[in-house]
Write a structure and sequence with these properties.
- The protein has twelve helices and two strands, in the order αααααααααββααα.
- It has 312 residues and is mostly helical.
- It has two domains: 155 residues, no CATH class; 122 residues.
- The C terminus is likely disordered.
Length: 312
């Protein structure tokens, strides 16, 4: 099980724990700390650290979100850790239980004693309200942050699954179509991953050659123009790489909207990979150009022709 899988599992458990009230707030804080550690979620880690260890006063955002301010416009706050908040809450609840039923008062001061008894109950009830409010707000904040993290992890897992499925279909076709260009992909991608600026030009050149190789594979150059029905007649010679790819997508009988999208995408990538543009391409952009080229060429290569070459 990967760290992401484990984080997704634990996050789902905690959300259920909160919804079903299976754990105390302090237990939720500790369990959520595991998700924060597995995912590297800095904000969640910072908040949970404050809840485990208490607040120093500089954590104004988390103090507010945890409902720890004495009043909205006051700089005073409750700095106790969540464990101490729980202990104070339980102590106040026990004190109220002990005072239930009233006292056995008599004599001249019965009225005063009764009033003081009621005041003590009211004081403890107020404390219960404060501590339970903080505990509830802490749990609500954790729930909100974990729900967001859970859906991000779930989406990431879905994306990874979809990409893995597509990758399995694309890689074989790409290897067959691209020849020597594909052999350079691993070394170029490693250098891009390391942030090597000198790899940008090599990566873009490799992308351009990859597009050239795919065009040669799916639609070899021919002297006769290719007619796309009543839309256009395309020159499909050796230098007309983009036209040949467009002709191939037409051969495959896919809808015009999809053909137009692929045409625009590949044209933009091919232009960006031109030698004259290398100087203003950053390593980050080169990574995305590299990825988009892989995806676009993969989509083209997984199409199936339904028309003969040169057919209208």
């Amino acid at each position: 099980m990967t760290r992401q899988d484990e984080a997704l599992r634990v996050a789902e458990e905690i959300l259920a724990d909160i919804e079903l009230k299976r754990l105390k707030p302090s237990e939720i804080v500790l369990k959520a700390s595991r998700v924060a550690r597995l995912t590297g979620h800095d904000e969640l880690s910072a908040f949970l650290s404050c809840e485990r260890n208490g607040y120093a006063g500089s954590e104004s955002e988390w103090i507010a979100r945890a409902g720890r301010r004495v009043t909205e416009d006051d700089s005073k706050f409750y700095p106790q850790s969540i464990a101490k908040v729980e202990a104070s809450l339980e102590a106040a609840q026990e004190a109220i239980k002990a005072m239930q039923g009233g006292g056995n008062y008599s004599g001249d001061y019965v009225t005063i004693a009764s009033r003081e008894h009621d005041a003590r109950i009211a004081s403890q009830a107020k404390a219960v309200g404060v501590w339970s409010g903080i505990a509830g707000q802490v749990v609500a904040t954790i729930y909100e942050m974990l729900a967001e993290t859970y859906h991000e992890l779930l989406f990431s897992e879905l994306q990874a699954s979809l990409f893995a499925d597509i990758q399995g279909r694309v890689d074989g076709s790409l290897a067959e179509a691209s020849g020597s260009a594909l052999q350079k992909i691993e070394s170029v991608s490693d250098r891009l991953r390391d942030g090597d600026p000198e790899s940008v030009s090599q990566a873009l050149t490799t992308c351009r050659r990859l597009i050239d190789s795919c065009a040669d594979h799916v639609f070899p150059a021919q002297e006769e123009p290719y007619a796309i029905g009543a839309e256009a007649t395309l020159s499909v010679g050796q230098q007309n790489v983009l036209n040949r790819l467009q002709a191939y997508t037409h051969q495959c009988g896919i809808p015009k909207g999809r053909r137009d999208r692929l045409r625009r995408t590949i044209a933009d990538l091919y232009s960006r990979c031109s030698a004259g543009t290398h100087a203003d391409v950053t390593v980050d952009e080169a990574r995305f150009v590299f990825l988009h080229t892989y995806i676009a060429m993969g989509e083209v290569l997984t199409l199936t022709p339904v028309r003969a070459v040169g057919a209208n």
